[in-house]
Design goal:
By secondary structure, the chain is mainly alpha-helical. It has helices spanning about 5-20, 25-45, 80-90, 100-114. The protein has two domains: about 5-45, no CATH class; about 65-114, no CATH class. The termini are far apart. Keywords: Membrane, Transmembrane, Transmembrane helix.
Length: about 110
C-alpha cells in the first residue's frame, strides 16, 4: 500500500494529466470567474454612489406576541406538555385567562359564534 504522501502526489499527477488533456476546459475554468468578477466591478463602478451620513431612527413600536389573542392564550398541539407550558406562561402573564382546549377548540368556538 502506498503511503499517504505518495497517494497525494499521484493524485496531483492525475489532475495535471487531465488538465493537460482538456486545455480549453482548463482555460475556461480560470477565465470565466475572472470575467464575472470584472463584470461585477464594472457594474459597481458605473453606478453613482451617495454617502449617507445620518442614520434613520424609527420610533419604538409595541409588539404583541402572535400567540396572544385578546386576553387569551391559544396553543397547539393539545398535549400535556404544551398545556403545562402554556399554563406556566399564562400564570406569568398577570390577568390573562387560559384557554385549556387549545387551538382547535378555540377555532370551533369562533365558528359557532360567527
Amino acid at each position: 500500500m502506498a503511503s499517504l504522501g505518495r497517494q497525494f502526489i499521484l493524485l496531483l499527477w492525475k489532475n495535471f494529466v487531465l488538465q493537460k488533456r482538456k486545455v480549453f476546459v482548463s482555460v475556461f475554468e480560470i477565465i470565466l470567474p475572472l470575467i464575472f468578477a470584472a463584470v461585477l466591478v464594472l457594474i459597481r463602478q458605473s453606478g453613482e454612489s451617495t454617502n449617507i451620513t445620518n442614520s434613520t431612527i424609527y420610533p419604538d413600536v409595541s409588539v404583541q406576541p402572535p400567540i396572544v389573542d385578546q386576553k387569551r392564550l391559544v396553543f397547539t398541539p393539545n398535549t400535556y406538555l404544551t398545556r403545562h407550558l402554556c399554563q406556566s406562561i399564562a400564570d406569568s402573564i398577570k390577568g390573562m385567562p387560559f384557554v385549556p382546549g387549545g387551538l382547535n377548540d378555540y377555532l370551533e368556538k369562533n365558528r359557532q359564534v360567527n
